[in-house]
Amino acid sequence: MTIDTRQLRYFIAVAEETHFGRAAERLRMSQPPLSQQIKQLEVSLDTSLFTRSTRSVDLTPAGDLLLTRGRRIIDELESIEADIRRVGQGLQGIIRVGFTGSATYAIMPRLVRQASHTYPDLAIEVSGEKLTPRLVAELDSHVIDLAILRPPFSHPDIDHVVIASEPLVAAIPLGSALTRRPELLMAELVGEEFVGYPSSSTVSQAIAAAWHARDVQPVCVQTASETSTLLSLVAAGIGIALVPESATSLQIGGTHFIPVSDAPRVDIAIAWRKTESSPAVRTFLPFVEDLMRNPPERQK
């Protein structure tokens, strides 16, 4: 015995309308074929589903059971169909996004908040405070699906697009006399002790190139991969740090930020696997790009 889902839908319409004529109108079909389909269903089940009169039809106990169970079946089938369509359209699934340094604090919260409204059926898994080399490696090994990182980097299987550029600013301990300055030049930082990112960091490499161009060898007393740790070292008075402007969104007591007019700029980009086939990732990628290109206000 097999219950045809079409027959089940016909049965539910008749049961809810309690009339073959009204059910036929609802189903946009003529009454004789509808009556024939219900009769075939009863024959296949070897039981009567309705008691019939000239004015209406009533459910038998077997019909009442089929109506209860049948509604659940149809609801589940419709839910499955909708879910499959949403997955195919990239509107449902899991997306893992990794963030570099200061983007963890400047971009991640807004992305998660807006994605939850725009794509409520997408589960966004985020991880932050990672250097670009690690993010590229995690993309390559499928640990993450998208990365917000700082170019340049080179990988044959990873593509990226630069979204924005931002200047570096000086993070200075509050006890320093430099905090009274509204703006600084890099030359005014010569002789200071620094804390910085590891040498593999894109930001660190940009800073090193800027000092090299000035024939200066800065004194770096400590390094840290995480922007939050770096700023904590500044607050503790260990040294000065040059950090992306977006790091100012991370407020740590004891740290003061000052623009450095001739400091280098660093790019921020979104990266993905060239062979990415996930509909969810393909749908989410332009959403992230648009969100990053059009912030609600300039990040500070």
Structure summary:
GO terms for molecular function: DNA binding; DNA-binding transcription factor activity. InterPro entries: LysR_HTH_N, LysR_subst-bd, WH-like_DNA-bd_sf, WH_DNA-bd_sf. The protein is 41% helix and 23% strand.
Explained architecture:
The chain has helices spanning 5-17, 20-27, 31-45, 61-88, 103-106, 108-118, 132-140, 202-213, 227-235, 279-293, and strands at residues 50-52, 57-59, 93-100, 122-130, 146-149, 158-173, 193-196, 219-223, 241-244, 255-259, 265-273. With 300 residues, the chain is α/β, with parallel strands linked by helices. It folds into three domains: 5-88, Winged helix-like DNA-binding domain superfamily/Winged helix DNA-binding domain (Arc Repressor Mutant, subunit A, Orthogonal Bundle); 93-164 and 267-293, D-Maltodextrin-Binding Protein, domain 2 (3-Layer(aba) Sandwich), CATH 3.40.190; 167-265, D-Maltodextrin-Binding Protein, domain 2 (3-Layer(aba) Sandwich). It is rod-shaped and about 100 Å long. The chain starts with a helix and ends in a 7-residue tail after the last helix. The model has no long low-confidence stretch (mean pLDDT 89). GO terms for molecular function: DNA binding; DNA-binding transcription factor activity. InterPro entries: LysR_HTH_N (IPR000847), LysR_subst-bd (IPR005119), WH-like_DNA-bd_sf (IPR036388), WH_DNA-bd_sf (IPR036390). Belongs to the LysR transcriptional regulatory family. Residues 3-60 form the HTH lysR-type domain.
